[in-house]
Amino acid sequence: MTVTYLYHSGFAVEFDDIVLVFDYYKGELPETAKGKKLYVFSSHYHKDHFQYKVFDWADRFDATYILSKDIRTKGPEDRTVKVKRRQKLSVDQLQIQTLRSTDEGVAFLVRVEGVTIYHAGDLNWWHWEEEGPEYNEKMKRDYQAEIGTIEGEHIDLAFVPLDPRLEEAYGWGIDHFMRHTETVHLFPMHLWGSYKTILRFMDDPLSEDYRDKIIRIAKRQQRFEIP
User: Closest Cα partner for 7 from 190, 216, 205, 149?
Assistant: First the structure.
């Protein structure tokens, strides 16, 4: 299994015959994707998680699109599946479960070829000081409740926001997620190009119990071999 970091929250996860692409924003599909079946996941309509360019891939790949229902754009009619929050469905050999985002759209839990993959989209503990205590307390409750729906889940690959804009609260969401799931490999995302945020988090006492599971991303198009 190979993971290619595209940019921001965009990743390609490759198996022998299929490729799963999550929340494409910018970047290029890996050359090794040629000839493989493509599954394209978009968690919501925000432009940093969904781009119309993904539909161009249908000309070059056998591509299927799994899109959150808030994405109004229609993909190829016979190749597009729209999903809603807290739904379970099968698409070919993929077993898919969605979670309700604390922002827009959904998060994805995907089981395929004996591997469980979690992509958060914008499901995160969004703590903004300027929003005030009432908003932030509700965000805390909503986030913790949603992660509670996958409490104790074994997850092989997890892609979870670590957003530097949240300042001191930047690691709260990812920390809660790691302490309530059995995650093996953790890819921080939604970094806005600030890769030093990963180094900051790896040095943060908050991550001491699981920092050996954190994958350090340093640049766009970086590839990782996952045993």
Answer: 190
- Tokens linked to 163: 């957003």
Q: Look-up: residue for tokens 């999903």? A: 83
Stretches in the chain below the pLDDT threshold 70: none
| CA 117 to the chain's CA centroid | 9
Q: What pLDDT, on a 0 to 100 scale, did the predictor assign at position 25? A: 97
Alpha-carbon distance of 96 to 176, in angstroms, equals 22
Non-local (6+) Cβ contacts of 211 within 8 A are 201, 202
Q: Name the residue among 94, 105, 84, 78 with its Cα closest to residue 21.
A: 94
Question: With contact defined as beta carbons under 8 Å apart, do 189 and 11 qualify?
Answer: yes
Assess contact for 68 and 122: CB atoms under 8 A: no
pTM of structure: 0.97
**Could you give the CA distance from residue 4 to residue 64 in angstroms, rounded to a whole number?**
19
End-to-end CA distance of the chain: 7
* Residue 197 pLDDT: 98
pLDDT single digits (tens) 153-166: 999 999 999 999 99
